[in-house]
Amino acid sequence: MATVLRLAEAIEANLRDGDTVAMEGFTHLIPFAAGHEVIRQRRKRLTLVRMTTDIIYDQLIGVGAADRMIFSWGGNPGVGSLHRFRDAYENGWPNKIEIEEHSHAAMANAYDAGAAGLPFAAFRGYRGAELPRVNPNIKEIVCPFTGEKLAAVPAIRLDVAIVHAQKADRKGNVLFEGIVGVQKQAVLCAKRSIVTVEEIVDDLGPHSPNAVILPGWTVNAIALVPGGAHPSYAHGYYKRDNIFYKTWDKISRDRDGFRAWIDENVIRKGPEAFAAFVQRAA
Amino acid sequence: MSGSYSPTEMMTVAAARALNNDDVCFVGIGAPSAACNLARMTHAPDIVLIYESGTIETKPTALPLSIGDGELSETALCTVSVPEMFRYWLQGGRITTGFLGGAQIDKFANLNTIVVGPYDKPVVRLPGSGGAPEIATSCGRIFITMSQSRRSFVDRLDFVTSLGHGQGGGDRKRLGVTTAGPTKVITDLCMLEPDRDTKELTVVSLHRGVTREQVRDATGWDVKFAAGLAETPPPTEIELRELRALHARTKVAHGEAA
pLDDT at position B2, please? Predict the structure, then answer.
């Protein structure tokens, strides 16, 4: 059953060193504030799972919080490389990071299989592609009915899923709107989950009976963090800060510049700082 | 006449023209996104644009910086989850045309977006595959658009992210793939199509003012030219006006001065 906690308590109670964790979000609703709290609490040896690995994992990798990443795309969308990820992968700074690399279809199917409690996902994929040569977790199976050869990947099983949503009610039921990505699947394939929200309300308000809702009994912790997805965005609340994504390219190119930015904007600040981004965007 | 235009504008216009009004199009970020939206704003107003973030029939007024910008969902008929997008819509065979680009392409239109150099010891680690491996095999046909140079048009890929025509001939069929694969490659210099039998990319049309030598110099293999080599019609006034207006709106939307 969901408990409403301060963000620091939610991370402290649910995320441990060495955990396999996903902070999901397909451009939208990326849980930046929660990622920053993970940095402040100096978690180590995490396995980071994500389809569209972007800046928040660049930051976690840059501070040395992770030693493994399972992903299908890693970049600064529309801008270029993740410089901290590349520095870790290519030069071992601040530590080496191992990768397990997939396609989007594989990851999406693997999340779905994890949420469904299946051991693996089967799909029509990777034909003529080279990733199966370098990733031993991509195998081939034969359909027992038609004989068609299909790709198989293990289901994603998380220790912890961390996601951001528009709102939760006081029972911890969570509503997602807009581009919903794989957040529902991530929470449902995780042992523990943390959801940061823009607001906590008495009633979720008018929504379609088909809305994407996670019942409170599927979530462990809810933390109220207005603006907590910045520089990503929250549909209906604030827009994506495209300029920050472009600025990150400069900040992250240089090790010292990156460390200074983390110190000033993460270590010396708390989740309440994110509220300023909502006002600025409104 | 339309006056002066850049090679990139020519590339986008030529790519847009390749699309039809009844296409259902899986759109990638960058050059493909510009081409698909230009098509929608000119000759193909009913074209269905789908982005892998889950937005179906999206009609953005500006180009998204990322694959999941808010306007894509706000202007879409509906937005589905990412597993649904890849399982029902892409794998389910609902897409007529997929648009891809890459860091490297070879003469059989296989693409690399993963690594320059060896996989385990990269010279340049690129972002990765994203949706490309399954887009390349599940869409009815594939258009590729990218700028042409010896760095990108290579004799041998460092890594095959997504299948084009494999090693040529009937390779796709041998791999159990029933879709057409890359049928057009549109660059800033020319348009190429696979030869009917060998599937090797062949230059079928040069953009106005571009010479065969320029294309040879920008290609890492001994590129062939079709017997009836054509000239790509230059952008019309309307195409240029719409494209420039689209880019101007995009700059404003991304917070830059128009």
Answer: 52
Superfamily of domain B7-184+235-253 in the CATH hierarchy: Glutaconate Coenzyme A-transferase (3.40.1080.10)
Q: Is A233 on the interface with B (CB under 8 A)?
A: yes
Residues A248 and A149 grouped into a single domain:
no
User: What pLDDT digit, counting tens, does each position of B132-150 carry?
Assistant: 999 999 999 999 999 999 9
How would residue A128 be classed by pLDDT, with cut points 50, 70 and 90? very high
Q: Region B65-81: what's the mean pLDDT? A: 90
Active site residue B242: no
Nearest to B133 among A126, A184, A212 (CB): A126
CA pair distance A162, A22, nearest whole angstrom: 6
Question: Tokens at residue B214, please?
Answer: 């320029």
- CA–CA distance, A74 with A101 (Å, rounded to integer): 10
For residue A279, pLDDT beyond 80? no
Q: Environment class of residue A256 by beta-carbon count within 10 Å: exposed (0-12), middle (13-18) or buried (19+)? A: exposed
Q: Which of B79, B82, B177 is closest, CB to CB, to A51?
A: B82
What confidence tens digit (pLDDT) does each residue in A165-192 have?
999 999 999 999 999 999 999 999 999 9
Chain CA centroid to CA B189, Å: 14
Q: If DSSP states are collapsed to H, E and C, what string results for B3-65?
A: CCCCHHHHHHHHHHHCCCCCCEEEECCCHHHHHHHHHHHCCCCCCEEEECCCEECCCCCCCCC
Of residues A157, A172, A132, A163, the one with CA closest to residue A5: A172
Distance (Å, whole) CA B20 – CA B147: 23
Q: Cα–Cα distances in Å, from A87 out to A20, A22, A70, A75?
A: 22, 21, 17, 13
Domain count, chain A: 2
Helix, strand and coil in chain A, % to nearest 5: 35, 30, 40
- Sketch the domain layout of chain B as residue ranges: 7-184+235-253
CB contact A131 to B (< 8 Å): yes
The contacts of residue B125 (CB under 8 Å, 6+ apart) are: A81, A85, A86, A89, A90, B115
